[in-house]
Design goal:
The chain contains 10 helices and 9 strands. A hairpin with a 2-residue loop joins strand 8 and strand 9.
Length: 260
């Protein structure tokens, strides 16, 4: 039976940390090959039904040869399609951060809580970075519903998009537990001032086919540049895989700013 998804883990002698979700083992292994990790650490791709990697199995898996599939084009956030996509920041900011995410992904929530607020304060609010939000909705029905709602919110009240986006992650539940059914998403939307929730609900139904095409296009575009799971970020020509530290994002932004 094919696993629903694959988790990329970082293992050391002291701890095990999940870094991201991927749609297949090949895409997870490709992402793991791009990480710089300490010599004593391991990166492992573990099927969703296994959970946290057991020690013995992890050692065996770590010794297996890894397959990879190269992206078709080099990562470059300046070349990421931005027309019609949700974004925050100055539309003419010198650096674009393209951010692929899934509303059900706990590692995306980790980035949302530990990285994005600081990044917004230091770089978005100062006009240096524009963040473009790109869908990678692959974890199940709740992911798709949330993706439709995000598109409808952007269409309805773009200036309130980030407030709504943050509220979704603040209320994130267990995967496919029903926390992001249409009724619950609309109920949450009603709590965000300035958004016409009735209009959002109507657009989610009327534009579902179009929204799905855009969601699929986002994922395909990300994959073409090496983004094969969530969260995935491209800043300049740097690809950042999984939940990473603020310093890694800062370094990528400063490098990109230095090239302007």
């Amino acid at each position: 039976m094919t696993p629903a998804y694959v988790t990329l883990w970082l293992l050391t002698s002291a701890y095990a940390v999940p870094l991201g979700y991927y749609a297949s083992e090949d895409s997870c292994r490709t992402a793991s090959s791009q990480l710089a990790v300490p010599a004593a650490a391991q990166v492992l791709c573990v099927p969703s039904e296994v959970g946290q990697p057991p020690g013995a199995a992890a050692q065996a898996q770590a010794s297996e040869p890894q397959s990879s599939s190269a992206p078709t084009v080099p990562p470059d956030s300046a070349k990421v399609a931005a027309a019609g996509e949700p974004f925050i920041g100055d539309d003419k900011a010198p650096v674009v951060m393209a951010y692929w995410y899934d509303y059900q992904c706990p590692f995306c929530r980790q980035n949302e809580e530990s990285v994005l607020p600081r990044l917004i304060k230091d770089y978005v609010d100062t006009g240096k970075v524009k963040v473009v939000f790109k869908d990678f909705a692959f974890l199940g029905p709740d992911s798709q519903t949330a993706g439709y709602a995000a598109r409808a919110v952007w269409e309805t009240a773009p200036d309130k998009f980030y407030s709504w986006h943050k509220a979704m992650f603040d209320h994130q539940g267990e995967e496919n537990s029903g926390w992001a059914t249409k009724d619950k998403v609309i109920a949450l939307t009603k709590t965000v001032a300035g958004i016409d929730a009735d209009k959002v609900e109507k657009l989610m139904t009327d534009n579902a086919t179009d929204y799905q095409k855009v969601i699929d296009a986002d994922a395909a575009e990300g994959a073409s540049m090496g983004v094969t799971g969530s969260p995935g970020v491209i800043i300049g020509t740097q690809l950042i895989v999984g939940a990473q530290s603020y310093d890694q994002f800062k370094s990528a932004i400063e490098t990109a700013l230095g090239k302007k």
